[in-house]
Prior knowledge:
This protein is α/β, with parallel strands linked by helices. The protein has a single domain (13-266), classed as Rossmann fold (3-Layer(aba) Sandwich), CATH 3.40.50. It has ten helices and seven strands. It has helices at 13-35, 52-60, 73-82, 120-130, 150-162, 171-174, 180-191, 209-213, 222-229, 232-245, and strands spanning 42-46, 65-70, 88-92, 105-111, 131-142, 196-206, 254-266. Strand 1 (42-46), helix 2 and strand 2 (65-70) form a beta-alpha-beta unit.
Amino acid sequence: MSETSRHDAWQAGANYDAYMGRWSRKVAPLFLDWLKAPDNGDWLDVGCGTGSLSQAILAGAAPASVTGIDASEGFVRHAAATIADPRVRFQRGDAQAIDLADASRDAVVSGLVLNFVPDKRAMLSEMARIARPGGSLGFFVWDYPGGGIAFMRAFWRAAGALDPDAAALAEDRRFPGCTEAGLRGLAAEVWGTGVETTALEVPTRFRDFADYWTPFTLGAGPAPGYCVSLSPDRREQLRRKLESDLPREPDGSILLSARAWAVKAVGPG
């Protein structure tokens, strides 16, 4: 396991939901509003995670069916247990080699996953293969290089001040291609002309410092994985620095923001 991935923990669905899922649920409807896929379609959610995007599709896109695939058995199990809708099914699957027929879905989408996939072109090619001619293709990822997730940037800034080795684990270093130009260029290479991009921005309000800090102690995701790897003394040192550094609203809440880049195109054929 590489040094930069050794803290990634992708099996505890409930813990990851507390860390990122609540913000994924906010950005997913914005993505679907922009995608404008037709009603009554068959959807595929590639890298469905704990089901945030699938849930938004069910709630706002009037699908005939939704299939969610993810490599994590824990995430698939969590999604299936928390989303009760006869139109959806979740299963394990590899985003780079999806076990579905050609031209079998009207909309093929992915949320907050592409940057973690080793062969990104293979994933985008699979999405295009499965989309019906004229269908909707789309994905979104966090703007890591641009500091788009302020609460995560604050964590790594504090961690780096205490531990110089932490800088190499931060998402901005690991995912330099998650820029608007980089993502548009990658999609155009695989999907051809007609690729469009936009920014999706949501507020991330934490009730208090405990609401901010607790998800980092649960171990699900790169930053939480790093946090729980620390000794109790070093973790407490990090907690104190963050508590001192973070801004507060008059009511004690912490209001930050998150930005993702979204990409869409029309299925070939």
